[in-house]
Amino acid sequence: MIVYCRSLRHSFLLASFLACGRLFFASERGLQEITSSESSNAMQDLLGILPKAGHREIQGSNMTLAMMPMPLQVSFTNDDPFLLDKDFYMELPEDDEFNERLLRAAKRFLSRLSGRTGLFFENNSPTYGKNETPSFFHWSKKLPALKIRCRRKGDEMELEEDESYSIEIASTLVVLEADTDLGILHGLETLLQLLSVDPFRQSYSWPAVSIRDKPRFRWRGLLIDASRHFMPVDVIQRNIDAMATVKLNVLHWHLTDDQGFRIESKAYPKLHERGSDGNYYKQTEIKDIVAYAAERGIRVVPEFDLPGHATAWLVGYPELGSAPGPYELSPYWGISEHVMDPTKDTLYSFLEKFLHEMTTLFPDPFVHMGGDEVKINEWNESATIQNFMVDHNLSNAHELQAYFNNRIASILKREGKIMIGWDEILHPNIPKSIIIQSWRGHDSMIQAAQQGYRSILSNGYYIDLCLSAETHYQNDPLPSAVNLTREEQELVLGGEATMWSEFVSPETIDSRIWPRTAAIAERLWSPQNVSDVKDMYRRLDIIGTQLEEHGLTHIKNYDMMLRRLVQGSDISALKTLVDVLEPVPGYERGQQLGYTSFSPLTRVVDAAPPDAPVARRFRYLVDDFLQLSSTGRADTNRTTYIEIVECLSLWKENHGKLSTSIERFPVLQEIKQLSVDLAEVAVIGLKAVERLRSMNKRIHFSNAERRALNRARKAHGQSFLAVVFDIRLLTLEKIP
Amino acid sequence: MIVYCRSLRHSFLLASFLACGRLFFASERGLQEITSSESSNAMQDLLGILPKAGHREIQGSNMTLAMMPMPLQVSFTNDDPFLLDKDFYMELPEDDEFNERLLRAAKRFLSRLSGRTGLFFENNSPTYGKNETPSFFHWSKKLPALKIRCRRKGDEMELEEDESYSIEIASTLVVLEADTDLGILHGLETLLQLLSVDPFRQSYSWPAVSIRDKPRFRWRGLLIDASRHFMPVDVIQRNIDAMATVKLNVLHWHLTDDQGFRIESKAYPKLHERGSDGNYYKQTEIKDIVAYAAERGIRVVPEFDLPGHATAWLVGYPELGSAPGPYELSPYWGISEHVMDPTKDTLYSFLEKFLHEMTTLFPDPFVHMGGDEVKINEWNESATIQNFMVDHNLSNAHELQAYFNNRIASILKREGKIMIGWDEILHPNIPKSIIIQSWRGHDSMIQAAQQGYRSILSNGYYIDLCLSAETHYQNDPLPSAVNLTREEQELVLGGEATMWSEFVSPETIDSRIWPRTAAIAERLWSPQNVSDVKDMYRRLDIIGTQLEEHGLTHIKNYDMMLRRLVQGSDISALKTLVDVLEPVPGYERGQQLGYTSFSPLTRVVDAAPPDAPVARRFRYLVDDFLQLSSTGRADTNRTTYIEIVECLSLWKENHGKLSTSIERFPVLQEIKQLSVDLAEVAVIGLKAVERLRSMNKRIHFSNAERRALNRARKAHGQSFLAVVFDIRLLTLEKIP
């Protein structure tokens, strides 16, 4: 990404490579790096302009702007900022007068803008004007306006659709232009992220910038698993809003699995009636959600996972299964043995009718048929199936699944749909039109592309595993060194974050999706070289708060869950501990405690944020302090030192404050050891900090202290202390 | 309400009058009051039992139990408490095996119980057993069980239906008995409120109590106005859940008004299409909500407000109006001039068809037809209407409205429905079957009863006016001195809290309804003498937190709204100020700032809690301190003194911390004066406290200080400082 100044008061070109956290400018003296110690007048001016662009918080500027995903290109002008006031109005192109989607998007935009600024706009509805680029030159005298210029309604279901847009901001005019209204939708989100405060004029404002933007990948998705835990309509809707905010464009809706069939079928009502606990989406709700998503430029791709993960189908229709049945909904996680019998012709007529019904609900050209984790025991045990395989020359289960997939793909083709499947379906016999979604590894994506299949990457984007945003952010679908030709690279459509729902309820799901998914959204939208992790986190914190506007609960349910744990009593000490706890990452949680679909998701581990922000900020402090220390400056930088000591002192004292609550509320018993551990390692951390600062080589750590550090790594109640590693770093002790 | 001990270790009878905040016991020495200075062994035992009942928090007991509404009768046994563990199971009566409502309620109960305790119950679904009262005597060896005994499915639409229940808790058995499942629903909520922690056994528990309960009034309602600001389905649903928690049983749904027609009509589609901004309830959604409410024992009474408040009807069907039209939806508050033309026969055929359609959606026997605030200008100006009145001997507008109401009442009667209307409809000519809802004053309710009409009280329960819970709590529909015979009193069915929505959005509505409505719910359910305000507030705080379980945002959106105001930066100083702000009460807000339906509801006033809990706690501190002071003990009670000084010192320093944010964010400009005022009055308060403590008569207040106190009473940004009055009290200055 390149940020440059179109014009500057001091007539030099600014080339700023913010992605790597450094700032350069080109002057007569050549390309020079700007450091914070610079103090020339020119530099002051430069810094005076830059923060308005919101790329970095500059000390004292009080600016907290951020864009996420970062646009392709941002440039600054030396115009005054655009000041928002109650006279502000919004103009849509009269050619597009019948584009209701654009009009409604404009109204939502106005309402959010008014909500964030408290401004009572005189014009609450957009006006219409000529669809031509207005002249900035002749504009200065008029009321502050946002003019939208757009040529046509975009087709969000067309993979190659133009999503680009541009923004020009001058002192009293903003022009947002795009070929399609999809571009406009993206541009409006960018404008909301650009909203700033002009500190000199006591006004909300937009900085004078020029933006060109378009996505790197055309498939930017979020999978929500509504089968394992049902997610009500409002949960889906607010997540669609959030997706639009970070420019994601595909909701992949996992609707069936062993634990529940979550969509009403009028053709086969026993699917939802017997295949669920009563929680399923009615067809009217499905239509509403599809329309809600389309309003925001988002496609909805349903997933009907087959032939494995199929128990919920079989409860009502056991005749489709490979075993005699009867079947029951599974309250357990993991992979069920129950699979469809692909040798039965009745299965295909059943699915033909079912899928035909589903196509009336889901207009998207793609249908996901799952295909992952197919257990073959029932196939092996069935004589009919074994005979069928012999008769049809199918030498193993994988070939039988390919046979199944081929038949499904042709059913879908007759319906005008394209099939997607998880990477297990990759097989020489399946048609090239099928799209492969890679979950088991990057390799399967590469392999699919090399074999001529289009693909979507999900491996590395499994947000249910509670890994850091950084991990996902660094997972580029097409890293520079990727072993694919340009043509093969074109087959990689993009990626999808996957929110599997074994361990989330409607109460916690937002906190497992957001804000980390915004980092994945940036990976899929922004140029490859937008990759500075620290800056990503800076912006993620800001965007995370803005996302609350949609009713998301990822921040606000945290305190609420802590309040419930202590029955409404004071949460401060509990919060100090849980602030530095994270759920055990990966698949570890599922292997503990005998979880079922009935288990409570209200304990400390469920409140604990993945990629805990407090722990992350401590990590950066430790990095800085160790850096200072290694260059002999640990005793000179007071700020970092004071902040670290404050953190550690707070933790050192916390167990004393929390122990009463732990004794009082049985549900907190499981975190008692974590609370004790935190206090212990904080004491060790304080000692380590003093040693580094004083460079006193006579201070050593005892074996007891080393054991304490080691003990504190252990998880309790499926949570672990996310600051122990960093405290160990401070001790400079070898980490086993 | 009487609380007594069935048996006690020390064989005396305990009669505790907790409603008045005092505790007595009867012993050989007669009735004695228990004070906190008592320390006999017997007393220790007594106190050891009492807190388990959750009526009061006894120092050091760590108990925070509370019930709201308070049951009719609670008694304590000396049994051990019932300890909850993973073996806990729930048994429903096999006679009621086909009562799906009861089964689903039981499952929700188990899920909430598991959610609050973190327990992984082995039995996630209830079992079935013989429908007979189990013997406590033979139970002791079995697994901990909750047995439900219930004779039949109740009819929530039958006004006289039995809602009573009883609970008996012994060490390993809880029996919840009721005639109808409606009683069981109430009892389950009581059990959740009774859930306690046994501090000696490190276990969640129920105290050994015996409860008999039934409502004082049979109509306990909440009105939600979904017209002025539309409220999405999930908002309605979570409020229904909360209503059930505090045993309210009527959702009065205000669906039409000048600002929007919020229900789909297939008979007259222009009603919702042209009469709304696109936000309306689809008929499928209406059916879902009615079913959702019925599941929780709650009736849904729709309101179609006529003949005034009618603009939204007339946009699509101007021919029904008294003026020629055309009509437009009103974005303004206040009373519109537009009224129906009651002289047109076509109006009645229209309404007949419309109401017939509505009866297919709303099974409740009651339909609310509004009838309030009918402006008569258009009637006066229409020659046809004037002629009609002459022809029909209608001497004034009120008689014309009575003519209208009579015709509507007969249409409804043919549909098998009973009409309800606001008190303006009271007129000698209307049928006695009609129910009068009193909003303008208690008097109209009395009048209605004296004239033989059944009535519902809403005057005094207008929660949109941002008054204190105390105000509503003290508003008894039938105070002891009421001038009504016993028969007339029987006509008073109950009351309804009214949530008019001029100044609430889906984001803020919960905080205007809860927790204050729980106090109204108690007024309508509990015995009249349950009236101790301080104890009500103690319990309200606890119940308020428990209500969050339903996804209500009344607590958690507070911080979220503050975060938005400061764009995600630190909210602590802002919170310190807003904690003691309240929205201007009454109708004042509507007269300021030119509010329309588009105006932002995201400013400080919208975040500020009505009846601010922090201000209320300060008020009680001041009460205590002044009490101590007046008896010359102000210098001896350190706790109260320290707490007051802590509050005042925090406020004194706060403006210094907050001013940067105020300068930075334009939306905070309007509270700048409040922030300055708080600091100023805090300084005065500190001086006053020192004077009282030291009894130093030479300390006086200057005119400047008196002016500052006066200035600080003024509202800014539609908010006022709720602690100024109490600080004035501390100064002992005369209050003008």
From TrEMBL, chains A, B:
<keyword id="KW-0378">Hydrolase</keyword>
<dbReference type="GO" id="GO:0030203">
    <property type="term" value="P:glycosaminoglycan metabolic process"/>
</dbReference>
<comment type="similarity">
    <text>Belongs to the glycosyl hydrolase 20 family.</text>
</comment>
<keyword id="KW-0326">Glycosidase</keyword>
<feature type="active site" description="Proton donor">
    <location>
        <position position="373"/>
    </location>
</feature>
<dbReference type="InterPro" id="IPR029019">
    <property type="entry name" value="HEX_eukaryotic_N"/>
</dbReference>
<dbReference type="GO" id="GO:0016020">
    <property type="term" value="C:membrane"/>
</dbReference>
<keyword id="KW-0325">Glycoprotein</keyword>
<dbReference type="GO" id="GO:0006689">
    <property type="term" value="P:ganglioside catabolic process"/>
</dbReference>
<keyword id="KW-0732">Signal</keyword>
<feature type="domain" description="Glycoside hydrolase family 20 catalytic">
    <location>
        <begin position="217"/>
        <end position="527"/>
    </location>
</feature>
<dbReference type="InterPro" id="IPR029018">
    <property type="entry name" value="Hex-like_dom2"/>
</dbReference>
<feature type="domain" description="Beta-hexosaminidase eukaryotic type N-terminal">
    <location>
        <begin position="68"/>
        <end position="194"/>
    </location>
</feature>
<protein>
    <recommendedName>
        <fullName>beta-N-acetylhexosaminidase</fullName>
        <ecNumber>3.2.1.52</ecNumber>
    </recommendedName>
</protein>
<dbReference type="GO" id="GO:0005764">
    <property type="term" value="C:lysosome"/>
</dbReference>
<dbReference type="InterPro" id="IPR015883">
    <property type="entry name" value="Glyco_hydro_20_cat"/>
</dbReference>
<dbReference type="InterPro" id="IPR025705">
    <property type="entry name" value="Beta_hexosaminidase_sua/sub"/>
</dbReference>
<dbReference type="GO" id="GO:0004563">
    <property type="term" value="F:beta-N-acetylhexosaminidase activity"/>
</dbReference>
<feature type="signal peptide">
    <location>
        <begin position="1"/>
        <end position="26"/>
    </location>
</feature>
<dbReference type="InterPro" id="IPR017853">
    <property type="entry name" value="GH"/>
</dbReference>
<dbReference type="GO" id="GO:0005975">
    <property type="term" value="P:carbohydrate metabolic process"/>
</dbReference>
<dbReference type="Pfam" id="PF14845">
    <property type="entry name" value="Glycohydro_20b2"/>
</dbReference>
<dbReference type="Pfam" id="PF00728">
    <property type="entry name" value="Glyco_hydro_20"/>
</dbReference>
